Structures are given as structure tokens and as C-alpha cells.
Request: fold
Amino acid sequence: AQKVTQAQTEISVVEKEDVTLDCVYETRDTTYYLFWYKQPPSGELVFLIRRNSFDEQNEISGRYSWNFQKSTSSFNFTITASQVVDSAVYFCALLTGGGSNYKLTFGKGTLLTVNP
Amino acid sequence: ETGVTQTPRHLVMGMTNKKSLKCEQHLGHNAMYWYKQSAKKPLELMFVYSLEERVENNSVPSRFSPECPNSSHLFLHLHTLQPEDSALYLCASSQESGTGVHFEQFFGPGTRLTVL
Reply:
């Protein structure tokens, strides 16, 4: 079975704080892809990052960074010096297979509220 | 138009109506997807059209019927829906390599559907 768990339903921080959003996944496949998406109040999901199972390098993009740990099946997302515009629902997703075996599973999302 | 567009943005229909949701992608992608997003539930992948192949989620009721006339257009035909089908329906597209390499999906703004 394939599963994505985002244990934090809601997080509230004050602007300029750092915040980490957790994502834990389960799959029996050895080849898979992990994604993070942001859904602001407007509703449209915005792609943030893609990582395949063979690439455990952590990545930093501006104030965003991602920590991929295969040993703990985690793909956590950290926002440094958070801003009000970061307020959104953040989804982690796991993709395996292809063709008729295509399977994409999203976590339930974490609502991040950044207060001024 | 750029990216992924969806029409209508809002739709209210009765249980006996027949309506269609439309999605168009302007990104030159070869795969398109329908998702359902209900309150308090994870994003659910409903249908996939990838490299001319349709992948179904067998848990989707037959009152939802997808149509993909070409790689740029995707429809979701709705008939005899139930109130619990009220949700945000999101369309997405991606470029699939056909060799097991998957890339990120780009989402449209969604259609907010209310079934009375």
C-alpha cells in the first residue's frame, strides 16, 4: 500500500520564524518520485519541488529547503524567515509506477498560517 | 492563455442535470489528469490520460465520465450527481517521458462544483 502522512494539520507562526513541514511516505517501490505543492487561498496548486528516489541530495531554493531522508522515509520542507505570503496549504505527494500502474498519492496537507 | 485553464470556474447543478467541465493545457504536455478535492480529504486522483493511454481509478463512480479528444483538451462529463460530489475539481497536465521518468504536474485553478 502507498501512503503519505502529513502529521501536522495546521501550523501557525509569526513572520520571520522558521517552520518545518513534515512528510512521511510509505511505498514498496524502489523507484518513486516525491513532490511538494503549495495551494494558496486562490485554489491553484503550485509546484515547488520534485525529487526522485535515487537523488537524496538536499535542496535549497531561496528561503525554501528540503530534507530527503530515505532511511526514515521522510521528505521534510523548511521555510526560513517565513512571510505572510507563505500562508497556504502545503501538500506532499508520492508518485510510483507508470502506464496502467500510475499511482499518485497526496497527503492531507498542512495549513500554514504566517501572522504579521 | 497560458498554463492550464479550466471552465467554468463555478458550477451549480441539480442532481438530474448533465454538465461538462473543460480543461485546456497550453504547455505542450502529453498527459492530463482530473482530481477531486473535498473538504478535509486528501486530493484524489480520478483519471489519467498519459501517452494516449487512459488510466482509471476504479473507485470513481460511473456518473463521472472523462473524455480526452487530444493532448491539449480534457473534459469531465457529469450526470446524475449526488450532493456528496460537491467539491473542487482540478485539472493538471505534465510531460511524461514514457520511460518511467515522471515530471511535475501543473494545475489549473479548478472548478468549484455544487450539487443541489
